[in-house]
Give the backbone structure.
Amino acid sequence: MHRNTVEFEVSGDYALFSDPITRVGGEKFSYQIPSYEALKGILHSIYWKPTLIWIIDEVRIMNPIQTETKGIRPIKYYNNGNDLSYYTYLKDCRYQVRAHFVWNYNRPELAEDRNENKHHNIAKRMIAKGGRRDIFLGTRECQGYVKPCQFGEGEGYYDNLPELSFGMMYHGITYADEAYSEETEGKMTVRLWNAIMKHGIITFLPPEKCIHRTIRSMDIKQFGQDQNNFSIIPENEGSD
């Protein structure tokens, strides 16, 4: 494990981890397992700063994979009327997650904020408190709950299943301010990977080892006109 590793359990009655291609209008169908990007979003709700980048190492599937389809009346994009769609959710979800963070070297103006012990301790305190912001499992209507855990503790439903492949899946999106190579610098790229579960655990590829495709050119977002005006969290942040 990495020195700044965090471990937590996230659970909820429902989850919707959908492919971005199917998110805009119409029917929505969840992946069978949480995507890397969805778990990274949960960590952003727990604790995040542009100084660092969260890397999801592993997720353990604790409960059996079950789905439930619901009739939804979303608002139409072209007027204020309602449409009728069917959304297929995962239900009774529970996952153990292991992750760590690395410094975001695309943000040299925040170099003074690279204090590993500070950010690691704040992240662990925020996990113990259930996160800084509301937790969602894929979409806003799927409320999630976070608590600390030791990764691998307890009995998981798929512990005795040697291997199960989920095929090619959406891994996440790399934005310009998290670029990791010349090919991703100044661009928005989408990442794909081949997901395999072994004994209930899915070990994610790091972003730089995924298949990636360029979506468009993109500039790094600045925090105000003066980069030096970005406020740095003091050492005792989150201690109360």
